[in-house]
Amino acid sequence: MKITLDADKCCAAGQCVLIAPEVFDQRDEDGVVVLLDAEPAADQHAAVREAAAICPAAVIEVHE
Ligand code: SF4
């Protein structure tokens, strides 16, 4: 799995960080998403898929 982000679209809602905190973080200054791990381990995949699905701005792209 590889993850890409279109951070320009991020509305800083933070759901991705709540669901997959080992993979996503938010910038201190504005809350925009930060990718911590672009190729997460298998035990993170389900959480990453859920984060991508619920992201209100469709920022997270998952490449299987
Ligand atoms: S869930 Fe989407 S919009 Fe919200 S912080 Fe994460 S990437 Fe940004």
Walk me through this protein's architecture:
- The protein is α+β, with helices and mostly antiparallel strands and 64 residues long.
- Helices cover 23% and strands 22% of the residues.
- The strands form 2 sheets. The chain has a two-stranded antiparallel sheet. A two-stranded antiparallel sheet has the order 2-3.
- The chain is globular.
Find the count of extended strands (DSSP E, 2+ residues): 4
Largest sheet: 2 strands, antiparallel
Unreliably modeled segments: none
Approximate shape: globular
Based on CA atoms alone, the radius of gyration comes out at: 10 Å
Strand order of the largest sheet: 1-4
Structure annotation, total helices: 2
Helicity, in percent?
Answer: 10-25%
Compute the average pLDDT. Answer: 98
Strand proportion, as a percent range, falls in 15-25%
Q: Give the helices and strands as they follow along the chain.
A: EHEEHE
Bound molecules: iron/sulfur cluster
**N-to-C CA distance:** 5 Å
Q: Given the helix and strand composition, which structural class is it?
A: alpha+beta
Summarize the structure.
The protein has 64 residues and is α+β, with helices and mostly antiparallel strands.
